[in-house]
Fold this sequence. Notes:
Number of helices: 17
Strand order of the largest sheet: 7-14-15-16-17-18-19-20
Mean pLDDT: 97
Structural class: alpha/beta
Radius of gyration: 23 Å
Strand content: 15-25%
Largest sheet: 8 strands, parallel
Low-confidence stretches: none
Number of strands: 23
Oligomer: single chain
Distance between the termini: 33 Å
Shape: globular
Amino acid sequence: MRSADLIFTGGSIITADDGGPTEPSHLAVSDGRIIAVGSDEVLGHRGPDTAMIDLAGRCLMPGFVEAHTHPTQDQTLYLDCVVDIRPVTTCPTADDVDRAIKRALDVAPAGEPLVFYGLDVLLQTGYPTPTLEWLDRIGPDRPIIIWQNSGHQAWANTAALRNAGLTDATPDPIGGSFERDTDGHLTGTVYEAPGVEAVVAPILFAALQGPEALAKQHAALSAQGVTMCSDMAFSPAMRPLVAALYEQNLARVRMRVYETSTPALTTDYPLANGDDLFQQIGIKIWVDGSPWVGNIDTSFPYLNTPATAALGLGHDHRGHANYTEAQLAEIVGAYYPRGWQIACHVHGDNGVDKILDAYERALRAHPRPDHRLRLEHCGAMTAAQFQRAARMGVTCSLFVDHLYYWGDVLADDLFGADKGGHWVRTKSALDAGMRVSFHNDSPVTREEPLRNMSAAVTRTSRTGRVLAPEERITVEQAIRAQTIDAAWQLFADDITGSLTPGKYADLVILDRDPRHVDPLDLPGIDVHATYLAGQPTYRR
């Protein structure tokens, strides 16, 4: 019998493997792979050099899989020129934002650019919307950008616009826009990924000199029990940096990346690429924007409240798509027939119809038995739309953490108890027969898979309010959404996502078994250790 390098024993084990043992007590690892899961018979793999890992009553389970995140953006939070002002991390109030901005301006070297990431006036109530005049006043001689927490909007001063090479004559990028006043002058407000990237990228790319910042982000993911993640807006400019990360053995997480679609509608990267640690598997596209900005494509209007007024939305405001249906069909039609998986950001129900129509046309023209086409976030997606998507073989990654942080805002300030309360219809997705994942879309929210699970199971906001309890799911279903089903979405379920012999020993040890705690207490479970291919990447 093959000798194991490691045998885990003395605690509970969750396999996330439908074909595995129900209540295993031992797991054996050799050469980075799981070789046995079961009861006392697993001890037959014990050899003279086997390390016995006593769980001491803790819980061993597959490492968490983060199916929608942005590590190459997250890494920028470690740069000296970036200041974290997110409401979910450093600045819960408007006063906190004000202090953070003043402090950074006081200590930053003269002329150095500053990017303040994470402003959200819905949570940081009372903070005024930035203006070009104010930004120019506080930073007349340095580029300054304030980046909205969703990532879909930013405010830049004149120096930042100049640094980006933008003028009044610069045309709007496809899928984004540069706001102008009535005289046609740039106001400094930019929208959507193409617009935001135009002002932010020149600053951030200049500051990234090596893989150290990304290594810190990998370590942060590992500390949350994550062993695989996506990158949902990957830039080809990041390839050398990522290559250095893995070559220097600084990586702690497997990556599956989605390159951002471009106006050229092509990528120079081959479909067959990478390895089990890093692969590009898809293309990221967008239909609409963010509910917190006011530009999601819905069949219903925003409410008329002080909060929507603070966002600058007019009476009975309705959002819109960033692309026409013809443009969406063109984008999908350019990448999908070449074999790429498509992952599409969409929140509004009108937007869902538009991208499903585009997917349906592509599937009819170019049938593919296992395409795993994706929809991302899916805030206002209806039960009927989940059913339609499931029939097409489309899968969804759900931003359930919205319910915790913005649940009250959704119901009271933006969309009302019905539309806002039914945000992210998780049970409807599962009832349709769909395999789903949960995500944090970091840096929008912190990486916290256990809170995602709690939000999906309880649908409880920060104030204790329960939203659409009929859309709750079970803890077991939530575990799958953060492990095997998320790995399946990333075309990696053959190598990770469950504790199955033959798969990599990508593991997390939790201080408590998530099946045996109050679901509201799931976020309080500590990560004790994380392993990638049997090697520890984090120990508390």
